[in-house]
Amino acid sequence: MWVHFAVNNPRATPVPKRLSIETAWLDQVDTYLQHHGQTVATARVGDLQPYSQRPLASRYFVVPQVFAPGVSEVFIRIETPDPMVVPIYLLSPEASQVRQTQQELSYGIVYGFLLALMAYNAILYFSLRSSRYLRYSLYLAMFLAMNAAYTGHGFAWLWPDSVNWQQWSNPLLMLSFGISGLLFAIRFLELRVYFPRARLAVLVFCAASGGLLGMAILLGSQTAALLVAFSFALLFSVLMLALGILSVRAGQKPARYFLLAALAAMVGAVLTALSTWGFIPHNSWTFRAVEIGMLIDATLLALALACQMRAGQEQRLRAERLAQQDPLTGLNNRRAFYDKTSSLWAHAVRHGHPASVMLLDIDAFKQVNDVHGHAFGDEVLKVVAEALRQIVRQDDVLARWGGEEFIVFLPETGTREATVLAERLRVAISGLRIPHKTDVITVTASFGVAQKAGQHATLDALIASSDTCLYQSKQQGRNRVTASLAEYASAA
Q1: What is the pLDDT of residues 86-101, one digit of tens each?
Q2: Is the entire prediction scored with pTM above 0.90?
Q3: Are residues 339 and 382 in the same domain?
Q4: Are residues 87 and 98 in the same domain?
Q5: Is residue 423 among the annotated active site residues?
Q6: How many domains would you assign to the chain?
Q7: Which residue range is the domain that position 27 belongs to?
């Protein structure tokens, strides 16, 4: 393609300008400056030459020109297999430098934000060992690499002497970016579980596209490679959107973020593609729409990952809570009792502080079940558990020990205080009125209390002493408290 325009310098002295062609992927650009029909300057730039041979260090093709007084003519010949939209700027050296600085600052913000997200999710991967964070980091890394390739930053910063790679970097990195995005979608949306056929179709699509691009590279056809890459990019956007819709309809809450992210990325990619192909006006906003879309996409996906992490943490906490909670009464179970008392027992033993254990058993509970049914028996257990919860002190450890038996560990508590508390509990339980059909049922409980002493080498030994006292309460007529010392026994 040839471009021709005239430049009028009304001054009496020559004026220096910079001719900036702001498309970074053009293979060969030849510029000719003519004045009064004579060619006074020529230059050749493009991707087919190493970066070091450019007249000025810029990711774009910038050629210094000096315009003599009067009318000069500029001819530009451009050759490339890529999309050929050629924004041309003729600026003073100062204005050109300001424009370049502003562009690099804006790219610094974009790259900094995406690099920070990438590093954060890489750290999460190494901490949590969840592949979704690794795939997300790879997805961001591939976008950064693809963006660096088509904006010219890669040639300027990363591979300035690799002319051959520069020719193939755009289609290869476009494909790599799309495949990394689809692999992330497979893991994030759990397609293996919810949509195994869709997962297989996505993998086949990725493999087929990779095969076609590989054939184009082997044949040395850059045009074919670009057609494959752009076709893949279009289908990639559609696929991401479709997977998001499927997952939202399947009821996956984080998929809502994914769908919005895919939509933002798709709109940005479409606007950039249309401006690159010349279907809509080419300017900074339309050309960089893909970056804006990607920033929104990355932010929403980060929120989606955070949503998944929070849901996973809540699920783990719920599972841990259920593992340590009696499902009927909501009290600690035996496992939780030992977990919560181990440090309290060790502290009491180490420092010689008092500690006591109280065991209680609902009297004649088998008869309650036999006469009124197991459903009412469960109701009795829940009512008694609530009564215990209301009276037991905050620092005490209350648990359902099994069946109709409950246990309380009382740190920093001797026999006298423990017995007084047990008596309060006994009175409270005997005063309960539990409605059943047209009747009201009452229950009682027997208690055994034991304080840590020299013969109690372990907590289980102290519990055994308390159990012995409980047995004595049962033998002596029930509904009573028996402590490890006889003088603390009390009858109803």
Answers
A1: 899 999 999 999 999 9
A2: no
A3: yes
A4: no
A5: no
A6: 3
A7: 2-91
